[in-house]
Structures are given as structure tokens and as C-alpha cells.
Design goal:
The strands form 4 sheets. An 8-stranded mixed sheet has the order 13-12-11-14-15-16-17-18, sandwiched between helices. Strands 1-2-3-4-5-7-10 form a 7-stranded mixed sheet, with helices on both faces. 49% of the residues are buried. The protein has 4 domains: 266 residues, Alpha-Beta Complex (2-enoyl-CoA Hydratase, Chain A, domain 1), CATH 3.90.226; 179 residues, NAD(P)-binding Rossmann-like Domain (Rossmann fold), CATH 3.40.50; 85 residues, N-(1-d-carboxylethyl)-l-norvaline Dehydrogenase, domain 2, CATH 1.10.1040; 93 residues, N-(1-d-carboxylethyl)-l-norvaline Dehydrogenase, domain 2. The protein is of the alpha/beta class. Helix 4 crosses helix 5 and helix 12 packs across helix 13. Bound molecules: (2S,3S)-3-hydroxy-2-methylbutanoyl-COA (T1G). (2S,3S)-3-hydroxy-2-methylbutanoyl-COA binds next to strand 6, helix 3 and helix 11. The site of (2S,3S)-3-hydroxy-2-methylbutanoyl-COA (T1G) has 24 residues, from strand 6, helix 3 and helix 11.
Length: 692
Amino acid sequence: MTAINDVVDLTREGEIAVITLDSPPVNALSAQLRAGIAQAVEQAVADDAAKAIVLTCAGRTFCAGADITEFGKPPKDPSLSAVQAVIEAAPKPVIAAIHGTALGGGLELALSCHYRVAVPSARCGLPEVKLGILPGAGGTQRLPRIVGAEQALEMITSGAHVTAKDAAAMGLFDKLVAEGNLREDAIAFAREVIASGAPLKKVRDLDEAIAPARGKPEIFAEFRKKNARKFRGFEAPEACIQAVEAAVEKPFEEGLKFERALFEKLVASEQSAAQRYAFFAEREAAKIPDIPKDTPTREIARVGMIGAGTMGGGISMNFLNAGIPVTIVETNQDALDRGLATIRKNYENSAKRGRLSMEDVEKRMALITPSLALDDLADCDLVIEAVFELMEVKKEIFTKLDGICKPGAIMASNTSYLDIDKIASVTSRPGDVLGMHFFSPANVMRLLEVVRGEKTEKDVVATAMALGKRIGKVAVCVGVAHGFVGNRMLSERQREANNLIMEGAMPWDVDRVLHDFGLPMGPFAMADLAGLDLGWTPENSTGETAKERLCEIDRRGQKNGKGFYDYDENRKATPSKVTEEIILDLSRAKGITRRAISDQEILERCIYPMINEGAKILQEGKALRASDIDIVWLTGYGWPVYRGGPMFYADTIGLDKVVAALETYAKSLGPDFEPAELLVRTAKEGKRISEM
Ligand code: T1G
């Protein structure tokens, strides 16, 4: 065996040279790995006894892409393209042996090989678009030459992983070999290739798969139209489409140059910086400084769910999806039946869309133990309550749970705002109590705020964080404060949105500005969707807000076709004259002289107070790091990932500008806008708040 460098070995098995890459954790294509591969291939080519070359990886996966930590730094030779040129110039077959996830540059490396074999559990993909870039080492030129333009467009603009089975069906993988026998089977495959005497085929020279798309711009026009909503605001998907068009219409080398030019532009863009930041921020959120990564966690074999309503049902589905049995407790049979029926309907809808088989639906429903008695929770390892959002009700439930739950069981509240320490104080075991705040729709939104109480045991926090990952959530550890992180910042935006429509804007102005900013919908459209009458009753209505006035005349939102907006039978929203009159009337009643308000002022007054509140959250130690706050907004509220999150966005604008604007607004609008001390200091020191 020859150690080419610290991360690349070269051995020979008979007439087969075997290059093994070993650069934990994911064999990302660092400069050292690239240099080692090029050198190993050159040595194997020079070795006359070697008739073919197998390129394989040790550890958990084949190369998972370029080393993202190298982005934004001066590039180091050899480039990945240079390594690919060495492989393509080899006069003997080079076979990529794939396990784990061959992603991005990893798949592009494999595409420069003559053949690709994989184990059935392997997956591959070109996820660069998720980082705000596009495949920059020939992926947009080589992939279409194997799978065709349409399939390539889907894969490259979605960044989705493709299973080995599907990759083989597309011709991306030449053979699926035995699980756990990759190296030996890849060597055997190499021997078959030698014995076949087949001429060496380079992917770059293939044309059959892309020829049908040639001279058909409508393929790309239709693809753009079909995906316009999904790609709204993003720069990278359009670049991906243009690169695939180039693969179809231009000679390979020209297409490669076109791809490189697009890549250079995107990798230097603000959007890509934001998306790369989000990639690492999501992984950073799993790290809690005072809780070691290997902290033993409690076994969660059965979950108890109190409440089968919208939240309780949605939360339960997360565990059912992960194969974890759930005991669902309601107060009466009707509520229980309704809850179970909703869960079943959701699953059957997924089955209709082909995401689940009916067998899967039945398997998941069979994991539910419905109950009308809290005592049935005695064997649960974790109990989550999603009952009415009132402290008295929460305290009553936890008092009962304290007497029912087995020793060591974790008791969690799904409260959106309330004080976990107060809830824990009614139990004899506050160390086993914490918040697990899911976001509606709970079976869809990825965010899970794990609310750590003052007395919550470290292993309980570690268990909730690990369980979050197990059920496909992004768990963020937050501190106890009204609204924790996300809703606390949302309250700031809501206050300003309501003030803005009193001062001169209309709901549709505010919604338009925030939608154009990249949010899925603005606060008033969101309120109509959720229902204006949440928590409203005629008895408690003061009539002092537009929302209450609307409820008073039975305009409850989408649910009854009219709220801030009027809705047609397809739920298409149009601004309502009724709403406009109510708002004008309220302004008059409050003695406010309405004025024209610019889009810029609307944006700043909705977003900057959120940034300010985020800084206060950091000052108070209620979030571990600014990037956690951004992950909360990216995964819980649909903040556009190409803007990185509220804190990253503040740095993009320039923290000094944000502070100056807050100070100006504070003079005219009052202390709500006084900039947080941390924000002022960070700006003064010329540092980035997103790095706090
Ligand atoms: N570069 C550097 N570090 C990476 C990395 C990468 N590409 N991928 C993962 N890591 C780190 C990650 O930060 C974490 O570090 C550890 O590995 C485990 O990751 C030329 C230019 C492979 C599916 O976008 O999707 O190729 O926190 O926690 O859940 O066209 O990592 O332990 O210190 O995510 O098992 C394209 C990104 C790059 C793939 C594994 N490739 N990675 O998931 O583990 S751009 C990607 C992933 C490119 C070319 C272009 C996932 C994974 P730490 P993890 P996981």
C-alpha cells in the first residue's frame, strides 16, 4: 500500500489499482484530498500492472461534496476540475465505488469516472442549489448527458437525493453491488470491464440522452413556469436551468465554461453566503456548550400526547412517522374520534399523493393507543401536553402527571409562550420537565424549540434534542421567556404591523412588502389563515383593534370566506372595502392623521424590531447563539433562506444602518425602538451580530 498523503491511499489487488479516500467526517473534497486523488490516479496510470482503477472511500460515505469550509477563501490547487481532467485522461477504466451519499462535487467526481457502482443503500445528488450555487465541476454538463435534460433539471434545481435504485434506473450507476461488499464487488466489476474489452466511454462524450431536448426551448420555458412559485426570490435555480440549457445547446467545453462563469457569480453572492451560513447554523444548533455530545439520553419507547386537536394530532404524527407508539388522551370520545380521524385523513392524503402506501397508513394508525384517561400515560417515557394555553390549566395537568408518570418519564409542555419554570414548580420532579414547542402545522414545520427550564436536567435536554433529530425536526435549545425566541420576536413584528395600518398603511400593503421580501405570507394573510377569532369572544372583545372589529361582524378569516381579505371559492384573497372602512374608522377614533407610508418604512418597522428583540434575547442568554435565532426563523416561520435569518440579514444591511434606523424611529415612535445594548456595541466594534 502507498500512502499518497494523510487522506489518500493507493493499493493494488492483482491488476486492479484501488485508491481509498479517508477524510472524516464526510470525505469532503478538501485541497489535500483533491491533491491526493490526482497523484494517486497518475501513479496508478503509470503502473503498467494496473489495468483498471477503483476509487473508493473509507468511513461513512463517498465524497459528500466540495469542502464548504473552503468557500470564500482563496482557492487552492488542484481544483476539482483539474482532478477530473486527470481521471478523464486516464487510458484505463476508472470506476467510482459509492456508498453513503455521493453529493455535489462527490457525484461530479464520480461522473468524471468511466463507471459508477454503488451499494443499494447509497444515495446521490447535486444539492449545490441549497447553498445558493450550482454544480461547479461539470455536474450541469455531465448529468444531462446521462439522464437527459428534464431529469437533470429536476435533480439540479431541487438538490434532492436520489436512491441508488433510481440512480441505476437512470443509468447514473452502472451496477448495484452487495451491501457491505462494495470494495470486493467494485474490484470484480473492474475485472469484468477489462475482460469485456469495451472501449473507454467518457460521460462528456455522450449525446444520446440530451439530443431529444436540442432545439426545444419550450422544455425550459415550461420548467420555469411550473416552478416559478418555488423558485421565487432565489438566484441559483435560474442559473441551474441556464446551465442545463447550455449542456443541450453548446459543445461540452463551452458548456463547462458557461457553468464556471455562473458558479463564480453565485458563489460570491449574498444569497449563497446566507445559504452556506444557514447550512452550518443548522448543525451548530445541535451543540449545547454545557451538555457534552455523548451525554446519555433516556430511552423513548412510548410517547403520551395529551390533546388530539390540531397541535396534539400534528405532534403525534411526528412520532408515528418515526415508528414510535403514541398514547393519545382526550377528555371526551368525540374529541378523540375527531383527532384520530384527522390524523388518518392527513395520512390518506399523503397516500393519494404517492408519498405513503396505504399499508404505511395502517401501520402508523396501529401505533396509536387512544384513551380517555390520563392514567393510561403511566407507561410512557415522554408525555407532551397540548392543552389550552392557560397557566392554570397547564399547572393542573402537570400536577396530575406528577402522580401518574413513571419515575424517569419526561414531562413536556407544548406551550407557545408560558413560563416552563412555573409549570415545573407544581411537580415533585422539575428536573424532568421542559418545553417542546412545535410549530403549526406540527407534522410539517421542521422547528422544535426545546425550552430548557432552570431545573431541567441535562440528560432531559439532551434526550429532547436527540428525539427532535430522530423525528426529523431541527431542535433549537432556548431559554424561558415569554414567547421563547420565535414568538417573542414575532410579537414585535405584529405590534408594528398593527400600528402601521392605523397610521396609514393597509393590511395588503404590509403583506405585499413582507411577501416581496421573501416571507411566505404577511401577518394579515397569516391571521386570516389561522382564524381571526382565535382567543376572541364577543364578551372579551374591546373593539379597539381591526381584528376584533372584523370578528364582531363575523369576518373570521379564510374559515368563513372573509377576514382582512375577501376570499373567493378558491380562497383567492382580494382586499376588502369593509376592512378598509373599519381601519379608517379606527384611525379616526384614535385621533390619528393617516399618512402615506413607504414600503421601506413598512419593511424596516416590521423587521428591525425583530432584530432588536433577537439581540435582547442574546443579551439575556435566552438563546445560545445568534445563528440559533436565525434557524428558528428559517425553520419555523419560512424566513427566506437566501437572506440567512433576521440576524444574518442585519449584517447584510449593515448593523450600523440598522442601529441608526432604530434610533431614528425611537425619536418619532417611542422606546419600543431603542436599540439593544448588544446591537449598539457590536455595531460600534464593527463586528457581525450573526456571529455572536
Ligand atoms: N463540507 C464541509 N463539511 C461538511 C460538508 C461539506 N460538504 N458536509 C458535511 N459537513 C460536515 C458538517 O458540517 C458536520 O460537521 C459533519 O460534516 C456531519 O454533517 C464543486 C461546490 C453529507 C448528507 O451540500 O448534506 O460540492 O457539525 O451533521 O446529518 O459542485 O452533511 O460534525 O463539525 O450534516 O449525517 C455540496 C452537504 C457541496 C452536502 C451528512 N455538498 N452535506 O448528513 O451529518 S458544494 C453538500 C450534507 C459542492 C461542487 C460544489 C450532509 C450529509 P460537524 P451532518 P449528516
